[in-house]
Specification:
Shape: globular
Strand order of the largest sheet: 1-2
Order of helices and strands: HEEHHEEHHHHHHHHHHHH
Strand content: under 5%
Number of helices: 15
Number of strands: 4
């Protein structure tokens, strides 16, 4: 437990150091949002996780962190020929690499581990939302694993301690995790979900299928939590930016699950310029207006 306390303090100290560095010298790592905010301060927890998160999980965190930091450094520059942002391309490549490398260690569940990046990325758009999500889901997994095995799973405890050390300035809106931070935590959480899934899969005799099902359930619970935490901001965003009238919880859920740059890119590839209007009440209730919203048709 002493090493966890030390890593908590290290996370807090490194967060303050990178906040000051990026404020003074950050350039693209300093944004005008909220009157001036250093972003990518999530590099502090990222460094701790790649050093102390157990192998092979730290390989995946290091992989996604490198691609994510490229996104943070370059910003929102576009590749004109492809009409996508360089950051989107880098993030997509990072997710693909996590799936490929992770497959050798975790099997098919590595795909779900990589998909955790989407909801945590959306959560990080509001101060404290990503931190609250990480803390609550870490506690959920810790308690579940302890109930099943009577042991405390060190990687989840590490995620929790590092996040709590980083969190205070994020809750105050003085820093932003950036892609490097939320992507790293997302992969760490995904690995933790898969570990809990493997425990349940082995104990029930369902094996890899049980692992996949439990991991999917935990990802969906995470999405539901983020949708609840960000409901007020999402309500305004969906009404003003997407012109979705009277958005409901289903729309919030679907925005977290499928929104963002990568989600819109997939919509562009699938829907092209097509506009789909949803009138069925049930489909509206479960968020299909957001699911089929195509920004490239506007």
């Amino acid at each position: 437990m002493i090493d966890i306390l030390i890593l908590f303090l290290l996370s807090a100290v490194l967060t303050i150091i990178f906040k000051e560095l990026f404020t003074r010298y950050g350039r693209n790592l300093y944004t005008s949002i909220r009157g001036g905010t250093p972003r990518a301060v999530g590099i502090a927890p990222f460094l701790i996780l790649i050093l102390f998160f157990p192998v092979p999980g730290n390989y995946l965190i290091a992989t996604i962190g490198i691609f994510a930091f490229i996104d943070d450094l370059i910003g929102r520059k576009r590749i004109k020929e492809l009409k996508i942002e360089i950051g989107q391309l880098s993030r997509g490549m990072g997710m693909l690499m996590v799936m490929i490398i992770g497959y050798f260690y975790f099997g098919p569940v590595s795909i779900l581990i990589a998909l955790m990046i989407q909801p945590l990325n959306i959560a990080d758009m509001q101060p404290g939302s990503a931190c609250s999500t990480i803390i609550l889901m870490c506690l959920t997994v810790l308690i579940a694993i302890f109930a099943l095995t009577s042991t405390i799973y060190y990687p989840v405890l590490l995620l929790l301690a590092v996040c709590i050390g980083y969190a205070p300035l994020d809750y105050k809106g003085k820093i932003m995790m950036g892609e490097i931070g939320n992507h790293s935590f997302a992969v760490g959480l995904g690995i933790s979900f898969a570990f809990l899934g493997s425990i349940i899969g082995n104990s029930t005799g369902t094996g890899v299928y049980g692992t996949l099902i439990i991991t999917i359930i935990l990802i969906l619970v995470t999405v539901m939590l983020i949708a609840f935490i960000r409901r007020k901001n999402l309500n305004q965003f969906l009404k003003k930016n997407l012109n979705i009238k009277n958005p409901n919880y289903g729309d919030y859920f679907m925005d977290i699950l499928t929104g963002g740059g990568l989600g819109d890119l997939l919509r562009r590839l699938i829907l092209k310029k097509r506009v789909i209007t949803i009138k069925n009440r049930f489909l509206i209730h479960i968020g299909f207006r957001r699911l089929v919203y195509n920004p490239y048709s506007v």
